[in-house]
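Tokens in:
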């Protein structure tokens, strides 16, 4: 059942992302072209999810695939993309970077506090 649930979830996310990106891109770029540009990233993300890749690794891969999809959309678009689309393409990578750095900082500060307590 997990395979069917993952399939439905990722197909729904692919369709939703295609429609949202269609609003942010020029009118010459159709939802069909956008869907074709987003499809490989969606398939790879679904495969990684189904294989049970750890969360942080999945988030990094997803953010990279999303940014690459944004680059593909920029290449096939007849006009430059809007600033909103550029921000939407960079947002997942920025969020993942913030989370990774926060976790690293928390781990580092936790070890410093533990070592300080042991020294006293």
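Residues out:
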């Amino acid at each position: 059942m997990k395979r069917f649930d993952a399939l439905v979830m990722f197909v729904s996310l692919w369709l939703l992302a295609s429609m949202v990106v269609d609003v942010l891109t020029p009118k010459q770029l159709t939802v069909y072209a956008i869907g074709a540009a987003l499809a490989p990233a969606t398939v790879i993300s679904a495969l990684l999810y189904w294989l049970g890749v750890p969360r942080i690794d999945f988030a990094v891969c997803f953010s990279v695939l999303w940014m690459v999809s944004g680059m593909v959309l920029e290449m096939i678009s007849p006009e430059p993309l809007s600033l909103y689309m550029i921000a939407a393409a960079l947002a997942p990578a920025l969020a993942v970077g913030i989370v990774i750095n926060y976790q690293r900082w928390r781990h580092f500060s936790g070890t410093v506090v533990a070592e300080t307590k042991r020294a006293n």
